[in-house]
Amino acid sequence: MKRVFIKSDSLYTENTLIFKEDNLHYLKNVLRVRENERIQAVDSSKHITYEATISHISKAIVKAEIISSVQADIQDQITISIIQGIPKSQKMDYIIQKCTEIGADQFYPLASKRCIPDISLKKDKKIARWQKISSEAAKQSRRITVPDIHEPVAIGNLQNIFAHHDINIILWEEENAMTLKQALKQKTPKSISLTIGPEGGFEQEEIVKMVDYGGIPVTIGNTILRTETAPIAVCAMLTYEYRL
């Protein structure tokens, strides 16, 4: 069944959904819906999935009559935040797409010392692009929520971000004692942040700062993963550990 994300104000009446602007284009030109066709409409802010039948299509609006709705229960689900050192090329696109499919809940692009790209001049365009990629990946994977893409942060901003998570994992290729499994056993978390460096990793002084903020450097084995591979691999591990 075709699926679209909606905002709460799309609920025109108790039994009718009305779509305009971006969703209008998506329904008409991408999904190519037809009258009497059934669709799913997801209100991610309220965690409600509606099943509805298309009742009217015009140049200005698409209307759908609600058949049923399901309220998702996500109160006890752990949240996963990806803090990713900004990589070269379009690797961030790939990271956001795949981690969204796997289950990440929010992304923080991280400007560390070894980051080569400077996105400051194109920040708004980049964030909008990444948010669109996240939204499309959420639709494809039939998620009930769309991850948030935050503005780029510096190492100094991580103190506040770490304070809002129960466990703060740092992937570091120089760590050889603390494993991911050992770090996760320290407490039963409701939220986890995962910090990954760019190509070239983190500098020693950055690790010292992050540890001072409450981060835990860990190893995930003997091999060194690429910056675009590591978050996907560990996000999958966390999803397996806490959600399956």
What does this protein look like?
This protein is of the alpha/beta class and 244 residues long. It has two domains: 70 residues, Ribosomal Protein L25, Chain P; 165 residues, 3-Layer(aba) Sandwich (Alpha/beta knot), CATH 3.40.1280.10. The chain is 30% helix and 27% strand. It contains seven helices and twelve strands. Strands 6, 7, 8, 9, 10, 11 and 12 form a seven-stranded parallel β-sheet that branches. Strand 3 and strand 4 form a beta hairpin. The longest helix is centred in the middle third of the chain and has 18 residues.
DSSP strand (E) fraction?
25-35%
Reported for the largest beta sheet, the result is:
7 strands, parallel
Q: Could you give me the name of the CATH homologous superfamily of the largest domain?
A: SPOUT methyltransferase, trefoil knot domain
Task: Report how far apart the termini are.
Answer: 24 Å
Shape: elongated
CA radius of gyration is: 20 Å
Number of strands: 12
Order of helices and strands: EEHEEEEHEHEEHEHEHEH
Number of domains: 2
Brief summary:
With 244 residues, the protein is α/β, with parallel strands linked by helices.
Sum up the structure in keywords.
244 residues; alpha/beta; Ribosomal Protein L25, Chain P; 2 domains; seven-stranded parallel sheet; 12 strands; 27% strand
Chain-wise SSE layout:
Layout: E1 2-6, E2 16-19, H1 21-30, E3 38-43, E4 48-57, E5 62-71, E6 79-85, H2 91-102, E7 106-111, H3 123-140, E8 148-149, E9 153-154, H4 158-163, E10 167-171, H5 180-184, E11 191-196, H6 204-212, E12 216-218, H7 230-243
Parallel strand pairs: 1-3, 6-7, 6-11, 7-8, 7-9, 10-11, 10-12
Antiparallel strand pairs: 2-5, 3-4, 4-5
Helix pairs in contact: 2-3, 2-7
